[in-house]
Amino acid sequence: MTAGQHPGHHSGVRVTLGVLAVASGIGGGVLHAVNAVAGRGFEPSFWLVQAADAVAFGAVGAVLAARSTARRVPDLMVATGLGQGVSLLLMEYAILGPLPLASLALWVASWLWAPALFLSATVLVLLLPEGTLPSARWRPVLALSWAVLALHAVVWAVTRYEDETPRPIDVRDLRNPVGLAVAGTPAVQVVLGALTLAAAGLALASLVSRWRKSSGDARQQLKWLAVGAALVVLLFELGVAAPQPWGELLVGLSALPMPLAMGVAALRHRLWDVDLAISTGLRYVLLSAVAIAVYTVVVSLLGAFSGAPVVATAVVALVLLPLHDRLRRLVNRLVHGEGNDPDTALAELGARLEATGDPVEVADRLLPAVVDRLAGLLRSPFVVLELLDGTVVAHGVASDPVESIDLRYAGARVGVLKLAGRHRSRAERSRLDRVAAQAAVAVHSVLATRDARRARQLVVAAREEERRRLRWDLHDGVAPLLAGLALQAETARDIVHDDPDAAQAILDRLMPNLSGAVDDVRAIVHELRPPALDELGVVGAVGELAARFSRPERRVVVSADNVDGLPAAIDLAAYRIVAEALNNAVRHAAASRIEISLRGVGTQVEVRITDDGRGLPTDRPSGVGLDSMRARAEELGGRFTVKSVPGSGTTVIADLPLAMGDDEP
């Protein structure tokens, strides 16, 4: 049985009011606990039925308003919950003490509960499940129901507080400002009760009439709704007649059969197509039932103990906190066949995909899990996921008819989702769209995993390499230079008294070297990307570098051929290899002549640095400087060699590619 669609632009208001109903019910319960601690209030207050109505009807009405096709039904459920919740909240507020408008709050609470309570047993039942009457002949019954609700509001509004039955209102010295003695007479109460039973009975008869004329799922839906309506009336009447505290328990439980019956009808027989949305409302209905039962049992066991309400409230809180998650999984398993609702399940799959960095694991393990989960969430005998790269992941065996849905991520097509084709309700279609969006994210994750992983590795490698280069530069540049300058300064200090002229000469040489050290520090900072490379090109930058190392006793010569327009990474590597080789030749080899050659040969650039220094000892291990030059060359796909004969100088050769291919890091 499918109802017409209610206007979507009003659903936000309905949902908001449903949330307010739940909030008012909870707030009223909190105030009741506060009043109970202070010894304020009266018994029986029947606060449980009001709190239960507010939470159960407010929650279910809100989810129906947001996700279902039901007409008028969400409005009536929200009205029931909001009326009961506001009535409870105002009553407990008035009991708190002589606060502003307490008298008005008590008066509104004294009558608002009645039409809100009986609305669910009369008008709501009469209009279930489509929000319309079975036929035009039921219009007088609808008019009677509305009249009964109006009569309840008027009668209870003018009933003196001390005459209210079965709960006389005793709040300080407050009295009903419009109270009439006649309103509380047995005759009026009997007539009002008879009219209420007549309206509720006729509403139940309308459900039975619908049931007799229906078949299939519609018949099963109506059966459960009729059972729920009958239990509401039965539990309420038993609660009014039973002694306390069992009477309050039974009246409180009367708030639950209708939401529970709606939940069963929706879950098992597709009432309103809200199997996803109703799980939320059903969960809170069950929580309300547990809260009512636990509270009443604890109070009854503690008997006349004055702190019984406080202890009961604490026990309820301790029970509900761990129970909430268990009920969530139980309801979701009943509705969706697993412990999570579809959105949560898909979010978990997305999180697993995001947390998995191995492309093989994503493709081989997680995508099949995604497909299996989708088959359950969509209740399809088969689901086939085809990726843009040709990968196919299937659950079940495809058979006609087949429905295909393009999967798009950021506007680009990443795959196709295929499943069993059949007629789908608006709610199912909406869920399918959400599922397709989640599947597109999963597919995109698989297609992008390798690129993302490679990009992360390159970023980490580049960062660590830059740190290592800075370490090499400081180790082989500034540190040795400063150490040498410190030795010179120490020598000048030691001889300044014995040979002032010699000390002066040392200091004269020291000052330019100190300036050079400052320049070296600046150069290291600039060499994160030396400005000279961009301003002068690699040849000019190397020439400038050579000029810095040149001295009267040391000559540095540069030659270049066919090395214009090198990629930025290549000219930077060439520059730094030259700089490192110059450092080694000057500080370790004591060279007097250094030749630097840059030549483009075929698809490579040959960087050659030759010095006439003392050479490398045969037993000396490779140092940081040589390792840094080798790493700079090899990370670009080049080669690095060192030729040295002790006492005859050293030649450093780096062959770098002229261009970087796509496969180069």
Question: What's the order of the H and E elements?
Answer: HHHHHHHHHHHHHHEEEEHHHEHEEHEE
Q: Share of helix among residues? A: 55-70%
The tally of helices reads 19
Largest sheet: 5 strands, mixed
Q: Uncertain segments of ≥5 residues (pLDDT<50)? A: 1-9, 273-277, 661-665
Distance between the termini: 63 Å
The tally of beta strands, per DSSP, is 9
- What structural category characterises the helix and strand content? alpha+beta
What would you report as the Rg, rounded to the nearest angstrom?
43 Å
Strand content: 5-15%
**Overall geometric form:** elongated
Q: List the strand order in the largest sheet.
A: 5-6-7-9-8
Give the averaged pLDDT, no decimals.
77
In short:
The longest helix is centred in the last third of the chain and has 70 residues, at 426-495. It contains 19 helices and 9 strands.
What is this structure's SSE topology?
Blueprint: H1 11-37, H2 47-67, H3 73-96, H4 102-119, H5 123-127, H6 139-158, H7 186-213, H8 216-241, H9 246-253, H10 257-269, H11 275-302, H12 308-336, H13 342-355, H14 359-378, E1 383-387, E2 392-395, E3 402-409, E4 412-420, H15 426-495, H16 500-526, H17 531-549, E5 555-561, H18 568-587, E6 593-601, E7 604-611, H19 624-634, E8 639-644, E9 650-657
Parallel strand pairs: 5-6
Antiparallel strand pairs: 1-2, 1-4, 3-4, 6-7, 7-9, 8-9
